[in-house]
Amino acid sequence: MTAGETPALAVERLAVLRAGTDIDIVADVSFRLRAGEVLGLVGESGSGKTTAGLALLNHFRSSLEPAEGVRVRLAGRLVQDLDADAQAALRGSVICYVPQDPGTALNPALRIRTQLAECGKDGVPLAEARLNELLGEVRLPATAAFLDSYPHQLSGGQQQRVAIAMAFANRPRVIVMDEPTTGLDVTTQAHILDIVRQLCSLHGVAAVYISHDLAVVASLAQSVAVMYAGRIVEMGPVDAVLRRPRHPYTQALVRAVPDLGSDEAVRGIPGQAPDPGARPAGCSFAPRCTAATAICAEEPPELLLATDHSVRCFHPLEPGGTAAEAARISLISGVGEALLQIRDLAARHGARQVLHGIDLALTPGSCLAIVGESGSGKTTLARCIAGLHADQSGTLRFGGVELAPTSRRRAAKARRDIQYIFQNPYASLNPRRTIEQSLQAALETFEPVSRVEARLRVAEALVQVSLPASMGERYPHQLSGGQRQRVAIARALIVKPRLLICDEITSALDVSIQAVIVEMLDRLRRENDLSLIFVTHNLALVPSIAGEVAILMAGRIVETGETARVFADPVSPETRKLIADTPRLRARWASA
Amino acid sequence: MASLSGSRTGLATVGIACVGFVAFLALAGPFLSPYSPEEFVGAPFQPPGGTLWLGADALGRDALSRVLSGGYRTLGLAAVATVLGVAAGALLGMAAGFLKGTADEAIMRLLDVALAFPQMIFALLFLSILGSDPWLVVLVVAAVHAPQVARVARAGTLRVAGEDFVRHAEAIGTPPLRILLREILPNISVPLLVELGLRYTYSIALIAGLSFLGLGQQPPTPDWGLMINENRIGMGSNPWPVLAPVILIVLLTIGVNLVTDALARRSGATAAETSR
Amino acid sequence: MFEGVVFRLIVRRVLLGLVTLFLVSVVVFVATQYLPGDAAQAVLGRSATPERLEALRTQLSLDDPAPVQYWRWLTGLLSGDAGVSLANQKPIIPQVMPRVANSFTLLAITVIVAVPVAIAAGILAAVRKDSGADATMTVAALGLAAAPEFVIAIGLIAMFSTVVFHWLPPVSMVPPNSSVFTRPAILVLPVLTLALVVFPYIFRMIRASMIEVLESDYMEMGRLKGLRRRRLVLVHALPNALGPTLQVIALTFAYLAGGVVIVEYIFGFPGIGQGLINAVTARDIPVIQLTVLLLATFYVTVNLIADLVTVLVTPKLRTGTWHR
Q1: pLDDT tens digit string along B38-60?
Q2: Nearest to C148 among B4, B129, B249 (CB)
Q3: Under a CB-based contact definition with an 8 Å cutoff, are residues A203 and A168 in contact?
Q4: Is residue C220 within 8 angstroms of chain A, CB to CB?
Q5: Residue A124: which pLDDT band, with cuts at 50, 70 and 90?
Q6: 8-state DSSP, A407
Q7: What's residue C94's pLDDT?
Q8: Domain containing B122: what range?
Q9: For residue B234, what is the domain's CATH number?
């Protein structure tokens, strides 16, 4: 920034408290943003990034309030000096917001025309011509029919582009974007990122881009601030922070992120972030940090400038000294007779056919990743194998024996050998039963065991997924998402299966926890002679877990083979597009 | 927020106290009443005074003795009718929700027909034809509740049956009855308990209302609903034979409602926690 | 203007309503005519002479096969002939219709009085959620919801007509065939009773659905767009609260169809509910049949209309999906 230039946004000591308490959700957030600059605000769930983003618009959700001494300057004007009306007048004109889920943030009862037109300044609706112009900018059809539609008639990507058009309508100085591409397919995401990039630079709009996805931020932002437990722990230019992280958390986070531009396996961060109110007196990351010393537990560190960027740590890492101990990906494909053989599988949902002529084989002891965007039929395929989707045709052979389409008509041995783990760990455990009861019920379905033996087996299964056996007495709501997903895996392992089908089991989890689960699955596969089918929408995750991969698109397999080969030399154009649209964290550095 | 939730717990305590007080009076009442409820001890509508604490009713019987002796029938009949109705409705609803398809369709269409009658009209129609034996009143009131409870149970069953933990139980081959009893029932037990409380207050209103209309308990039986009707022409002289049962019914139904409401709130909070 | 799906949905709902009504008429007919064994015996009691029993059987057509009786009864009803009353041997329709008009007047006034007040209270409580006003109204609604209709009625009579004040007539005695408007004062207590009975239901539903709307993501988005409060409430919140509100009004009407019986009986109000009680007491079967069928038809129709209107005011239900 040149001297004398007024920053588009200057934030000093932003802090948000739980109303009526001194428990902070966000504290000590300060940064400056010049026109046209994009700042990535990165953090895992509960890090306070959304709260901080909304605070920039002086908006606080119920039971939250700003702390004393917060100073937010928008284009030179101190927001805290203005009265409520003047503050409200800034919203939508000088500073705008793009929500995470446009499906719920657009009003279901109003037409797109109404919601877009009301963005006009001072309550004057925008003219039709202007609406069409705005739709054109976000590459939506500028037609009367489109303007007449209701939000539910649009796809997720279209809804998000409408929300972006609303934000850019008044050419604001600053836009806060809260995970605008979460939940969208990579192709749609790439498209939207492209639009955002173009509009920000064209109109000189400064943007705060909130995301949990480091690769997305790396591809869009010039600078990045990493948040942990409500504080910025590291901030600076994207390259400096993500390539040469100096905070132990940032470094661990970068390693946990699956990345197509790297041949390193993902590595998880043990433990979990402390909740507001339960944060330690010193550094919040200290309990999970391998480099922590006595002082880390006693005193909160300050955010200080170290070489090329700022770090909040007593023991910042040496720049550039991180690559040494990284584990390389070394996945072998299984050999021998196929354990699972799928021939000409087709499946329908009512009148709609969702799978067409699927042929797949899985060798014992290997892991096959099934990758596809939403609606590609990947979950249906997994459910067909698990016997959870009745409306299917074709043949499934497991261990040489043909499988019936529904689990009810399969032999007990087949039901036991094939275990399915669900995507959402919040719904897959009975909330009214303890962990031990849930695991026992699964075990007793297949084996008559004594009470003592059942308890032993439950404890053994929990230890296998790195949970203490005492966890058995708890109820699901007392566990974190990552812990619940481990319990779901333990419930599958307790019956000693031969094939584990994992349906997007990490998509509801933070990347640091996702990496822990992926590492664990790989260990379990090797230790227990298991075969795995790993269903995911995240192409970048595949090399960390699977030796073989099948790419599913619109119900058909467009490419299949060894992971290394598919990624190095994709045959089908669909795979190439998918690989090209997947954002990379390290790609730019490799070429730099 | 803390003070508000605190006052809500307080309300539940008030509710329990109300229910306890009325239940005690109704159950112990026959042993406490100073006179026989059918004994003539004063002039019609004689105001309170002397040994007649609440005065006399339309026929000169002791109002207090009639109030004390007239509660347990209504409370007991309402309890039996409620339990029967909720049990039948829960079974029907769970069966419909779990079996789906034709069975579901058939059960729900039949219940729609029952639901097309306003509750009081349904009870009047059958009791006016069948007579008003206490067990008939119980059966008809239970039949009034069953369709509504079935709807709640069916909705709950459908919601829970779509959850992944039920799919998991199906996938590993758990027998259907065990799924219904071990996976689904515990997860709809709270809404069913709330129904039980709510329906109990409706049963009391309905049974007392039917007595009031002359279709439940018959004179000279002491009964709260009947007392209100028998004595309301004399409210100007002695309101107590009317007001005493009115106050007790209100205390009971408000008490049950407060407890039920607290239960629903608490489970709502835990449900939100679980789905977070 | 409707897409095929919506049209089919509406047709399906209307057909289902008709089937339900048909089954209801069968239930009413079978229950009244056959349940006690011999309807004639039930009407006349044990002391009836064989000649009188035979005459009544003929009048009720009890000697014909059941489907024939049912068919005659139904076609009679549909052509406006419900037969004659057993109590006074006069045609039923001219006796029942003024009562229907009186009851409908009572219901309509109750809805006009209670619904706006309860909706306003519900909105106020939702906007000021967790305030003292909200807590007071919520607890009051809880108490009112618990009290049976006749208890509220007796309470009001004690308050305004007998024990405390003597402002209003405790009963609404007018000749059954005259209009209630000849003495408007008699409407006050019945209307007040019914209004207090329905208030808690409307209040709670409106409060809950308003809170849902106000705490929705799109309302937060509206605030973040810098919309003015007026526009936020009138243009953004209101259309989303319309569906639940209509449902509430319909439920109120439907609920009142049952509630009028006791209230009319207590106040001696010359409506259809009082007529029903009189018919039940006199075991006047044709009147019971017609009255119950009318009330059930009203109940089903109101619910049906509410469902259809809800579909029409909710874009998500009204229009299909078109992805590009």
Answers
A1: 777 777 878 887 777 787 787 87
A2: B249
A3: yes
A4: yes
A5: confident
A6: G
A7: 84
A8: 2-275
A9: 1.10.3720.10
Q: What is the dihedral of CA B220, B221, B227, B233, to 10 degrees?
A: -10
Q: How far apart are CA A408 and CA A422, in angstroms?
A: 18
CA angle B191, B197, B201 (to 5 degrees): 140
Report the distance separating Cα B42 and Cα B56, nearest Å. Answer: 6
CA distance C202 to chain A (A): 22
Instruction: For residue C251, give the amino acid letter.
Output: L
Q: Is the pLDDT of residue A183 over 50?
A: yes
Domains of chain C listed by start with CATH number? 2-35+82-323 (1.10.3720.10)
pTM equals 0.83
Phi, psi of B43 (to 5 degrees): -80, 155
ipTM above 0.85, yes or no: no
Chain C residues near residue A108 by CB distance under 8 angstroms: 218, 240, 315-316
Are B141 and B208 in contact by the 8 Å Cβ rule? The answer is: no
Identify the closest residue of chain B to C140 by CA–CA distance.
B254
* Biggest alpha carbon–alpha carbon distance for chain C: 85
**pLDDT one-digit tens code per residue, A325-375:** 555 555 555 566 789 999 999 999 988 999 999 999 998 889 999 999 988
pLDDT in tens, C283-323: 788 888 889 898 888 888 888 888 888 888 888 777 654 43
Query: 3-state class of C111 per DSSP?
Result: helix
A42 touches A54 (CB < 8 A): no
- What total of structural domains would you count in chain B? 1
**Is C70 exposed, middle or buried (CB count within 10 Å of its CB: 0-12, 13-18, 19+)?**
middle
B209 to chain C, any CB pair closer than 8 A? The answer is yes
Q: Which stretches of C35-49 are DSSP H helices? A: 39-44
pLDDT, tens digit, for every residue of A472-518? 999 999 898 889 999 999 999 999 999 999 999 998 888 989 999 99
Sequence-separated (6 or more) residues with CB below 8 Å from residue A548: A333, A362, A366, A367, A368, A369, A560, A561, A562, A563
Reply yes or no on whether the pLDDT at B2 is more than 80: no
| Two tokens, residue C34 | 């056959």
What Cα–Cα distance (Å) separates residue A269 from each residue in A211, A266, A294, A317?
19, 10, 21, 17
Question: What pLDDT, on a 0 to 100 scale, did the predictor assign at position C324?
Answer: 34
Q: Work out the average pLDDT over A221-244.
A: 93
C276, B213 in Cβ contact below 8 A? Answer: no
The answer to whether the CB atoms of B164 and A427 lie below 8 A apart is yes
HSE (CB half, 13 Å, CA atoms) of B2? Answer: 3
Residue range A46-55, pLDDT digits in tens: 899 999 999 9
Report H helices in C87-184: 93-127, 132-146, 149-160
Residue type at position A530: L
Q: In this complex, which chains have at least 3 CB pairs below 8 Å with chain B?
A: A, C
Return all residues near C12 (Cβ < 8 A) that are at least 6 apart. Answer: none
Model pLDDT, residue A332: 54
What are the b/e assignments for A491-511, b being 16+ CB within 10 Å? bbbbbbbbbbbbbbbbebbbb
Quick check: B235 and C158 CB within 8 A? yes
Calpha distance B159→C283 (Å, rounded)? 46
Q: Taking phi first (over 0 means left), then psi (-120 to 50 degrees means alpha), and beta for anything else, what does residue A525 get?
A: alpha
- Would the CB atoms of C296 and B228 count as touching at under 8 Å? no
Question: Which range, of A571-575, A578-582, B121-125, averages the lowest pLDDT?
Answer: B121-125
Pairs across A and C, CB distance < 8 A: 86
Amino acid residing at A33: L
Interface of chain A toward chain C, CB-CB under 8 angstroms: 54, 57, 59, 61-62, 88-93, 96-97, 99, 101, 104-110, 114, 118-119, 123, 141, 149-150, 152-155, 158, 166
